[in-house]
Design a protein that fits this description.
The complex is a heterodimer of chains A (273) and B (299). Chain A is mainly α and 273 residues long. Chain A has twelve helices and no strands. With 299 residues, chain B is of the alpha/beta class. In chain B, α3 runs parallel beside α5. The longest helix of chain B has 16 residues. Classes of the chains: A mainly alpha (273), B alpha/beta (299). The interface between A and B is medium-sized, with 24 and 33 residues.
Chain lengths: 273, 299
């Protein structure tokens, strides 16, 4: 345990010095504030409280931002040690590989959690200050917070896996950005164009829900939009939220971190220093 | 009582078709300092990585203090200094060593004394990013000293160190060896290995081609000795005639003779009296021995 904590403390210090902590906190704070201030316009028309609307906007933001932050923090985790020549040294120490990964995960997840709590706290503060009924949206915000942390864990795991697979940090960074583009941006575009082409056929009714659940980012969005009933405020792929039962998206949100971290452990195990 | 800290028997490692190590056997006793010599690609690093348990051997056996390589007991007993470890530039030397102490279950309070021991006390609180290559190498040495290791595996430990630092470095190693730690180090700087190790092991193309103390190896190789004779003004042509096989280089005579003829040749030169002003005897250098044994290796 001491070894894991020491690894976590060291990683946290590195993230602090590399400004990742500052970047994560500032990004989450600024975007959350902007969204909660700008999210006031549609309130009246939809008849929901201000915080619920903010949560819907924050969900869309988190789908992009959380995976990006997680990948940026994690891509260097193994490849960086390889490049600095410290990986063989570390592996010669009496510490297991899973302990190394867990230590890094603790540090990175702690940073993400603090960033999420800061951003969401600010958003809640603004909403409550402007609208007394906003307390009704608080459960949705809490749900968004913990599922954001799980989404972060998923992409941290993916980042560690990519970092193990590529021998150099530059290669790992490329793979990480590719994964982000693929899962967060292009995946939805591909699905939308497939639906348009399919015109209500087999793909739309059978494959589409599965495709959404299979992508951790989409599952995260689905889960939060379904749970808060805020689908009306969402656009695009999120509009499909009604069609998929809550337990399915919840399962995907809960299982993905484990799968990603399992992949990371498997990829790291294969690394020969 | 344990007879040897490290025992390697008939070790073979293949990477696909390529044989990196073939039938290597070696043992290192407590307190013994062994230098591993070989070209790049001779198998030194592979051998070290197998000893550390970082990669597995194809066949053969390795034991470290009665434990298998990579087992928790072996990892506790072995310290390692990889070649060119750069460490994280954003951390200070002190933070690094504290972390490594924690990984070995030792008190982080020992970090400062360790850094002082390797001469980094003044820079302990500076980031590694500001360190020179030699200073980073000292951080590597400091972490290798943690927790009284039974065996130190040092890959090119003195690369990047200036001559004074090298001397200090070997003094630290001598201390450890005196306390019973075994040391296995690889080096390209043959001259420093010459004075500072008990035994030399030469690897060539993955085979152990020679093993022994320096004088052992000298005797076995039986390489010719070089003599440099400086003649008094004007007598050089005389001496060239008197010493068959000698050549004149910049006013001094260079000749070689086999080990067995050494004393006889010296006697003859002494007999030339005051025609000779100076005489230098150059035994075969470690470089010569090294290339001799490397050439003799099986293809």
């Amino acid at each position: 345990m001491n070894r894991i904590l020491s690894t976590a403390a060291t990683e946290f210090r590195i993230a602090l010095r590399n400004r990742w902590v500052a970047i994560a906190l500032i990004l989450m704070a600024v975007f959350s504030l902007v969204l909660s201030l700008a999210g006031s316009a549609p309130t009246g028309g939809l008849g929901v409280d201000r915080l619920s609307v903010t949560v819907a906007s924050l969900t869309s933001l988190s789908v992009y931002l959380i995976p990006l932050l997680a990948l940026l923090m994690s891509f260097d985790a193994i490849a960086g040690e390889t490049e600095r020549g410290t990986l063989p040294l570390l592996l010669a120490y009496p510490i297991a590989r899973w302990e190394i990964l867990l230590g890094k995960l603790f540090a990175h997840l702690a940073i993400l959690t603090v960033a999420v709590l800061l951003g969401h706290g600010l958003a809640a503060g603004v909403a409550l200050w402007a609208d007394e009924t906003a307390l009704a949206g608080l459960p949705a915000l809490v749900r968004l917070s913990w599922s954001s942390v799980l989404l972060g864990a998923t992409f941290l795991g993916a980042g560690y896996a990519l970092s193990s697979l590529s021998r150099r940090p530059s290669g790992a960074a490329g793979l990480a950005i590719g994964l982000w583009l693929g899962l967060v941006v292009l995946y939805d575009l591909a699905l939308l164009s497939a639906i348009v082409a399919d015109n209500g056929g087999w793909f739309t009714t059978k494959a589409f829900p599965i495709a959404l659940l299979a992508n951790p980012a989409d599952a995260f969005r689905l889960f939060n939009l379904t749970a808060s009933g805020a689908t009306a405020a969402a656009a695009g792929v999120g509009g499909a939220a009604d069609a998929i039962p809550l337990w399915q998206s919840l399962t995907s949100v809960l299982v993905w971190p484990l799968v990603a971290l399992g992949l990371a452990a498997a990829a790291f195990r294969k690394v020969t220093p | 009582m344990m007879t040897s800290t490290l025992t390697i028997s008939d070790l073979t490692k293949r990477f696909g078709e390529v044989a990196a190590l073939t039938g290597v056997s070696l043992s290192v006793a407590p307190g013994e300092r062994v230098a591993l010599l070989g070209h790049n690609g001779a198998g030194k690093s592979t051998l070290m990585k197998i000893i550390l348990g970082l990669i597995t051997a194809t066949s053969g056996e390795v034991t470290i203090c009665d434990a298998a390589p990579g087992s928790p007991a072996a990892r506790r007993a072995v310290a390692y200094l990889p070649e060119n470890a750069a460490f994280h530039p954003a951390l200070t030397g002190l933070e690094h060593i504290r972390h490594y102490l924690a990984l070995r279950g030792e008190s982080p309070a020992q970090a400062m004394p360790l850094l002082e021991k390797v001469g980094l006390g003044h820079a302990a609180r500076r980031r590694i990013g500001t360190y020179s290559k030699g200073m980073r190498q000292r951080v590597g040495l400091a972490q290798a000293l943690i927790g009284q290791p039974r065996l130190l595996v040092l890959d090119e430990p003195t690369s990047g160190l200036d001559p004074v630092s090298r001397r200090e470095f070997y003094a630290v190693l001598d201390d450890l060896a005196a306390k019973g730690a075994s040391i296995l180090l690889s080096s390209h700087a043959l001259t420093e290995v010459e004075a500072r190790t008990d035994r030399i092991v030469i690897l060539s193309k993955g085979r152990l081609v020679a093993e022994g103390s320096l004088s052992d190896l000298r005797r076995r190789a039986n390489l010719p000795i070089t003599l440099h004779v400086t003649a008094r003004n004007g007598y050089a042509p005389d001496l060239v005639r008197l010493l068959p096989g000698s050549i004149l280089v910049d006013g001094s005579l260079h000749l070689t003779c086999v080990q067995s003829a050494k004393l006889e040749t010296l006697g003859r030169i002494a007999g030339f009296g005051d025609k000779v002003t100076d005489l230098e005897v150059l035994p075969p250098s470690l470089e010569d021995l090294y290339s001799h044994f490397s050439r003799g290796a099986a293809p």
